[in-house]
Amino acid sequence: MSDIVVRPAEHGDYEAWLPLWTGYNTFYERVSPDEVTAVTWRRFFDAYEPIHCLVAEQDRRLVGIVHYIFHRNTWFIDPVCYLQDLFTAEDVRGNGIGRKLIEAVYAKAREAGSPRVYWTTQEKNARARLLYDKIATQSDFIQYRKPLA
Fold it and tell me: Which whole-number Å values give the CA distances from 113 to 43, 67, 76, 83, 135, in the listed order?
């Protein structure tokens, strides 16, 4: 297996990014409307948007994606980094790609002066949680949601 390269997404990555994005949404049993997918992709390349995308590439194939967002909050002066979406192709899981993507987000957050990176996952996501437990600390917060639309 050759080296994994983590880099910012490029405009030409869309066709390779889309199946990973679809796989991520399928894993969480949701469908992202085409309009949301298109706007999300455009935001990655808009300098005024705080949302970013890194991709993991191996043998010229995209095998993983991570999306992260910088936002203000009431606990710190500098924006914190929310790792929103992380997904690796099923056939390459267990090869360190998720870790490399998370560590790349850590590096981007440090560069931006962010004091924290955080994320959420489902309790049932046991395989990913094995990694998360090694590279971060689980918070004692419980998330609540109220759909408004």
Answer: 21, 18, 11, 15, 19
Q: Kind and range of the H or E element at 25?
A: helix 14-27
Query: 115, 118, 50: which is closest to 77 by C-alpha?
Result: 115
pLDDT tens readout for residues 74-96: 999 999 999 999 999 999 999 99
Contact assessment for residue 45 and residue 38, using Cβ atoms and an 8 Å cutoff: no
Which single residue is written with the structure tokens 């889309």? 18
Single pTM value for the model: 0.94
Nearest residue to 20 (alpha-carbon basis) of 52, 68, 65: 65
- Is residue 13 helix, strand or coil? helix
